[in-house]
Amino acid sequence: MKEELIGLIPAAGKGVRLGLPYPKELYPVIRNNRYKPVAQFVLNNMTDAGIRHIVFVINETKHQLIGYFGGGQRFGCDISYVVQDQRNGDQTSTSPGLAHALDSAYHLICGRTVCFGMADTIMQPESVFLQAYSQARQDDDVILALFPTERPEKFGMVRLDRDGSVQEIVDKPRKTDLTYMWGCIIWRPRFTEHLHEAVSKGITDFADIMNRAIRNGLCFRGVSMQSGTYIDLGTYEEIVEMDLCLREG
């Protein structure tokens, strides 16, 4: 039976670190005299893999993001929007909110194979989801697309065994011998249910939720993008690095 793929892009953060007058997902990347917001890169990663339904998880202020992407037809897909409710009066974006944001789309992603990527990142190759999915085995519950990094303190680092099975996620370690981080994830319904149950119990840290899934016997596997690049636009320093990288590319 062919799996039904659905894209999932969390974009509910406030973007307070950058202080932009518009959602940071719309940060302009200008190439060949054409405007392309950063969030369009991950959307293109998904449509390149044949995904035709993509869900943005947003907060109540992201009207401009809806205005730009609309229903998705001009990008070759259908786009749905889920509004993540504020929790406990929290007005800022914090990393533990990621799990809650992903689970906010439970009613749309349950029973489907989910392709999840972050809205403020640029991943190369563009076919990252296609490449990762093409290597999925029937018994894989979760596929992590892995990228090399020299800044492990910023990312979820991945410990693998010799056959590529994921043993552990080490989140933002200050010191580590690990060299690969996860950049995007493909998961099947068993992990969707695990995530939903964990969030319903108040477990909020996404790395912890993944490690619990590994300990509970879900099959995690890493697919390395050895020549790939992963750019995260979380700070102005990273934006400057992105500009330099794209010019060189």
What does this structure look like?
The protein has one domain (5-248): Spore Coat Polysaccharide Biosynthesis Protein SpsA, Chain A (Alpha-Beta Complex), CATH 3.90.550.10. It is built from eight helices and 13 strands. The protein has helices at 39-48, 63-69, 97-103, 106-109, 128-134, 189-200, 206-215, 236-248, and strands at residues 5-11, 28-31, 34-37, 53-58, 78-83, 113-116, 121-124, 142-148, 156-160, 166-171, 180-187, 220-224, 229-232. The chain has a seven-stranded mixed beta sheet with strand order 5-4-1-6-11-8-12, with helices on both faces. A two-stranded antiparallel sheet has the order 2-3. The chain has a two-stranded antiparallel ribbon with strand order 7-13. Strand 2 (28-31) and strand 3 (34-37) form a beta hairpin. Helix 3 crosses helix 6. The radius of gyration is 17 Å and the shape is globular. The protein starts with a strand and ends with a helix.
